[in-house]
Write a structure and sequence with these properties.
The protein has 106 residues and is mainly alpha-helical. Helix content is 77%, strand content 0%. The protein contains four helices and no strands. The protein has helices at residues 2-13, 18-39, 46-70, 75-97. It starts with a helix and ends in a 9-residue tail after the last helix.
Length: 106
């Protein structure tokens, strides 16, 4: 939330270059996702792995949205991304609810 607020505030105030910030957030996204996968390797760090993975995905969405905005994407393009992301989330939630934790591969 804080990162998105900072990006929106700096874009609104015209501070900095959103393209540079977007690239930095994309790199942070990749690092968080990789660290999240590493954190899931053992039981003691699994909670941290989950948080890092979710942060990585959030950062990735923020960077993608910023890049779309910089490229001049229309409101329709953002609506399509939101619609498809929501549909994918719903399908994923339905499929995930049918799989128990003990059924996951190790």
């Amino acid at each position: 939330g804080l990162l998105l607020s900072g990006l929106a505030g700096s874009a609104y105030a015209g501070l900095g270059d959103l393209g540079i910030v977007s690239g930095s957030v994309g790199i942070a996204s990749a690092i968080c996702c990789i660290a999240g996968i590493a954190g899931l390797a053992n039981q003691e760090s699994a909670r941290t792995g989950n948080v890092l993975g979710m942060a990585g995905v959030g950062f990735g969405l923020a960077a993608t949205t910023a890049d779309m905005s910089l490229a001049g994407a229309s409101a329709t393009a953002f609506q399509q991304v939101g619609l498809l992301g929501g549909a994918g989330s719903a399908i994923g939630a339905v499929l995930a609810s049918g799989v128990g934790p003990t059924e996951l591969p190790q």
